[in-house]
Design brief:
529 residues
Length: 529
């Protein structure tokens, strides 16, 4: 463990911006949910009616979980925010742990650090401590934020610990995944797949009322802490013990492998390459096809969930006179359903931005792993090599948006008897988000070309855009600041004609960013600034 404290300071120095943004988003999401629920459902009767509607809507329970106490603002806040905040805390933990463990080994930095007076366990221990501290800070800030709004302190603490505890469990999952494979990308994939499985088990268990399935998922445990509904503190202890157990298993496995290697031996590839690999675009496809397939399937599943839920939205607010009055002015329940679907396609656009950043920054991963040099040493110019990955970033983000929109349209259409018509409508609404998503690929490319060490700012930009889109109006942020997000300029595509002007401007901005990034990359040295 020698050198752990110094490595913790180094990790905090490197991730000071990203971790801060993650924490602000998670805490802000829960605080904003509590404020919105208190404003929209000020009367206990309204909250009880909402809880009864949720109890009869399996699709809604699959998305956010069951309501354990609908009489209080805190109970509805726990229902609305626990699952989403826990997923975000888990993603934060996975990214931080893999970045400071497996990614360090893959790039060779861990070997350089290990050549100094640093114990072998210090590197993973520092990553676990940083992620654990971030989750503990989330728990503390959630408690203070909810208690500051007048909610019971015990319930606020339980909710904060449920979210932070879930992040702690996936800290253990991430450090365990980092022992299994030799590549950071694969480790993230394994941990993300575990998170997806946890969400699926909880969703199926809550929707079908099968408690056993829900208890098989850490996300289900977070719900069953029952914040503001007779807190179960022993479930918080379960989250803590599970995280410790995973970290302990990872520590044991770490002793059984060599530095830079994983416990799972890499597969031996064929002796001869297929003909279709004769080109940089084909190589980029071969490298990124697995991730693209996973994102596409995930978006399709989420789209089905959103589409199945849409027709039940009107029931959720039927007993709220404030929202009923607003609906009467804007066109009734049909307008509410379109607004819901528009909001969900906007959310899909934000998430697709994550794929665009990931696919673009695969360029940096290839360069850092010294796999770009053999390719560029041949007859492949730099612009063609980057173009192959950028085609996957732009085309892939469009494809996954199309999968989500089409799936949502089919699911919604089947419920109302118009699958073809709704599939076309929702497909168009999802594709409208694509130009805003492309700008994130442009930002990532510009950072890669100009300053590869600062490419993490592309992820920070995505989180900032999400924060502005989801909480900007609620937090009364100035409109000119909200307009900095490309997603603020995406036109409404459901219920009205689409204005193509903003989309063309976003495409032009993307083209300028990509051109500047590719030009900068052509002028700099490999693995340099």
């Amino acid at each position: 463990m020698t050198g752990t404290v110094a490595l913790v300071r180094l990790a905090l120095r490197r991730d000071r911006v990203l971790l801060l943004v993650w924490i602000v988003v998670v805490v802000g999401l829960i605080a904003a949910s509590a404020s919105a629920i208190a404003e929209l459902y000020p009367q206990a009767a309204q909250r009880i009616a909402l809880g009864a509607t949720i109890g009869t809507a399996p699709a809604l329970q699959a998305l956010t979980g069951p309501v354990f106490d609908a009489t209080s603002v805190g109970g509805l806040t726990a229902w609305r925010g626990t699952t989403m905040a826990s997923v975000l805390a888990a993603l934060m933990s996975i990214a931080a742990v893999v970045r400071h463990t497996r990614a360090e080994e893959e790039t060779g930095r861990a070997e350089l650090v290990g050549a100094c007076a640093v114990g072998r366990a210090a590197i993973p221990a520092a990553a676990v401590l940083v992620a654990g501290a971030a989750n503990l800070l989330i728990a503390l800030l959630v408690t203070l934020g909810l208690a500051g709004q007048g909610l019971p302190v015990a319930g606020a603490l339980a909710l904060g610990l449920a979210v932070g505890g879930t992040g702690w469990v996936f800290t253990g999952v991430a450090v365990l995944a980092a022992q299994l494979t030799a590549h950071a990308r694969t480790a993230v994939g394994i941990a993300a797949a575990a998170l997806g499985l946890a969400f699926l088990l909880r969703a199926l268990g809550d929707a079908a009322g099968i408690e056993t399935l829900s208890w098989m998922s850490p996300l289900g445990w977070a719900q069953r802490v029952r914040a503001f509904a007779g807190e179960r503190w022993w479930v918080v202890a379960l989250l803590a013990v599970a995280g410790l157990a995973l970290v302990a298993v990872a520590a044991v496995l770490a002793r059984r492998r060599d530095l830079g290697a994983g416990l799972m031996a890499p597969r031996t590839g064929p002796g001869d390459a297929a003909r279709y690999l004769a080109g940089p675009l084909a190589l980029a496809w071969r490298l990124q096809r697995g991730a693209l397939l996973g994102w596409t399937v995930g978006f399709a599943l989420v789209g089905v969930m959103f589409g199945a839920l849409a027709d039940s939205v009107g029931d959720i607010v039927r007993d709220n006179p404030q929202i009923a009055a607003i609906l009467a002015m804007v066109g009734g329940a049909g307008a509410l359903i379109d607004s819901f679907l528009s909001a969900e396609t906007a959310l899909l656009g934000l998430v697709a931005g994550g794929y665009a950043v990931q696919a673009t920054l695969r360029l940096q991963g290839e360069e850092a792993a010294v796999r770009a040099e053999p390719v560029l040493a041949g007859a492949v110019p730099r612009w063609r090599w980057t173009a192959g990955h950028l085609v996957l970033a732009l085309g892939g983000s469009t494809l996954i948006l199309a999968a989500g929109g089409l799936a949502a349209g089919l699911a919604h259409g089947v419920r109302i008897g118009d699958p073809a018509g709704q599939a076309a409508r929702l497909l168009g609404a999802a594709l409208v988000q694509a130009p805003a998503t492309w700008t994130l690929a442009g930002i990532a490319m510009l950072l890669f070309g100009l300053a590869p060490r600062l490419t993490s700012l592309a992820w920070a930009a995505l989180v900032a855009f999400a924060l502005l889109a989801q909480l900007g109006e609620l937090l009364q942020i100035d409109e000119w600041i909200r307009d900095l997000s490309p997603f603020a300029h995406v036109p409404q595509a459901l219920g009205r004609a689409v204005d193509a002007g903003p989309l063309l401007w976003l495409a032009a901005v993307t083209a300028a960013l990509l051109l500047a990034g590719v030009t900068a990359f052509r002028l700099r040295d490999l693995r340099g600034n």
